[in-house]
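Notes on consecutive records. When two proteins share a document, each keeps its own sequence and its own token line. Never mix them. Below: protein one.
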Amino acid sequence: MSFNLPLSISDIWYLRGQIFNRLVYWLYCLICLIGQVKKMGKIKIFNGNVITPYRIIKNGCVVIEDGIIVHVGEDNVDVPDCRLIDAGGRYISPGFIDIHTHGAGGHDFMDGTVEAYLGAAETHARHGTTALTPTTLTSTNEELKNTFSVYKKAKELNKNGAEFLGLHLEGPYFSMEHRGAQDPRYIRNPDPEEYREILTWSDDIIRWSAAPELDGALEFGRFLRSKGILPSIAHSNAIYEQVQEAFESGYTHVTHLYSGMSMVRRINAYRYAGVVESAFLIDDMTVEIIADGHHLPQSLLKLIYKIKGPSQIALVTDSMRAAGMPEGESILGSLKDGQKVIVENGVAKTMDRLSFAGSVATADRLVRTMVELAEVPIAEAVKMMTATPARIMGIDRYKGSLVPGKHADIVIFDENITVHMTMVRGRVVYHC
């Protein structure tokens, strides 16, 4: 409302009413917050093997107060007036962090509904994920704008699933040679006018995957970094020299290593290293891998682990809607515009069964695969699903490890990596 002084009586009464309503609203919010804190109180998780950033504490104990970790140790400390959770000799681990997922439980984030976001988050929580980054596919800008709006609503309503960290845009700035399942109708080069406008539609974007060899892609990466957004190399045909430039322009991470990217190839009779070799050569480059046992065989899982190590590798599901669902026919992408696929033997395939069409992995399966197939120590497999993705996304100050002062995001699982309980910020969202 605009007005000129002096105010009329009606203006004064109107403003007084607005101020009163605002005060009532904030008082209500404060009461709700206080009530929530009182309800959470203190929790002690005991009789478990606590996985810390440095070791596994046998018969350890974790104490939580108002959703924050306040104690981690070997002794079963006395905590008066607390809720007790007996881990039953199982592992007490930081909650899994999935920084690349498209959906689960029959839902895809591109469905454009609040129900899809909440349903996928709840499914992932049942498998130990406490925080995730909903990921889009190459699509129309109208679909993107819609999912931005839906995400914001879903984030407010998400009480029973993995926490939403922010959005990851996968595309549309990709190489046609390595587009994979990305829709070729929408693939194009970065356009400053377009991506600047897209970023005005949402303040929830925290990561954007693109092919850095495209015209304008280096400028795009630098612009994203200036906005605090992680540029990531994906679906790219770049050679080593281009990846070097990209790294210097902010592309410090590689999306689903080996999937949708160049390897050693010939150009005019000469061999050139591709994105995969570049990721190995650049020590500070972080990578993510789909460790479902299908997208990468045992030999490559071991090779990546040997070269990059657990501090530079994040495990990601890159899961579609069929994750956590029975095998059979499914849809890759949105229900309206996706493609039919068949899920069998733990992976989605095109209907002709000539190629993979998406991951149906959940976070617990990734950890299990690294332990059982890649023969990685369990503490390091967990690190790749917790501390490393937290650091990559810049949230390691408050997530990713069982350390006093951090969020009480905790998962309890047995020796088979079967999840028995998932806790998000001190709130149990799943218990079997």
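Protein two starts on the next line and is unrelated to protein one.
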Amino acid sequence: MTSITPGYNPYAQYGSAYARTAAATQPSLLDALNAGDASNASDPNAATNLTLSDAAKAQLAAAANTPDFATVTDDARAALDKLYAAAKVTGPLDSDGKTTVDLSALDRRSLFAIATNNGGKFTPDEQKAASGELTSRFNAALAPAAAATSMTRNYTVVYKAALDYLDGASGEEKATATWAAQRAAVQKGYDVAKQKPDVAPSGISGDPVASYLMQYPDGAPAGTTKTFGTVATDVRAALDAQASIAAEKGTELVYDPARKFGQLVDFSSIDNRSLSAITLNQDQLFSNQEIYAAKKELDTRTRTSILNSLKQSQQSGDPSQLSLGILQSYSAMSDEERQASGWTPAFRDNVVQSYKTTSNILSILQGS
């Protein structure tokens, strides 16, 4: 990922070079390990017997089944063409330079293939649109952490979010000099921030976090393009679609897992803002059963978020990480999500105060 200047595609020089390198097929680690297991099984004198956990085997199997970059590129080309056909347009940008299609459904690896013009399959406008989407995703990843930083003045939070995002890149993206330079700059910023968390790192060449904070000092909101009424209408349609599928199977859609018959509602593809629309039921589109089930699912996700922050706090040995994690979750929520979850500004202020108190105690204990 890179913060991208409009009209400039920093990835273009890497796409074709990577494609040539990736053309050579090598045996996977999973294949090698399987071969090793087979040879050890027939050789009682083998010096080493490697045993993998089920989780490790599953991870290796998933890696072995990951499509190569050429396939990802072809699929990205086909996906773009389908988007154009559905929108009845011929390209990703209109005459004013505004996007004509939504690229949010494309994964990061596909967007990288387009942005770098891998295989020479994409137009300059497509590269520009994909690069813009990658920048938007980076900004969205930083937004909650930047908001938490603005409340706590702890800059390690936003730098850690940037590191996590960069480390989530594909192998193709990590192979570029652009990624390596950004990763090094962010790591340096993180290391500096750890020494003085309340002072913003500065003077680091190519630091994308510093650039982001200059533009959004208080943490830009994730942004919502749909009105809340539209969100409610869309999720109503989604639930009705599930009910129709259940009816085709001769059953009904149910919302209580304790029910012994029926098809249980699937909330896995429904985001938190949509769950909030059901929970708040501002337009009276949902039944009491639907409202109860959506609220329960939203509470579960909120609780999981807090537990993840607690786990991070325990693993790091830093109790302030719990408050920081909660503040990031708060900042990532829309106003409707906060209302549905009962996360008020007063609750946020209490968490900020808890962070400050904990930090002060830690400073005293550390003698700083």
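For the record: DSSP finds 16 helices and two strands in the chain.
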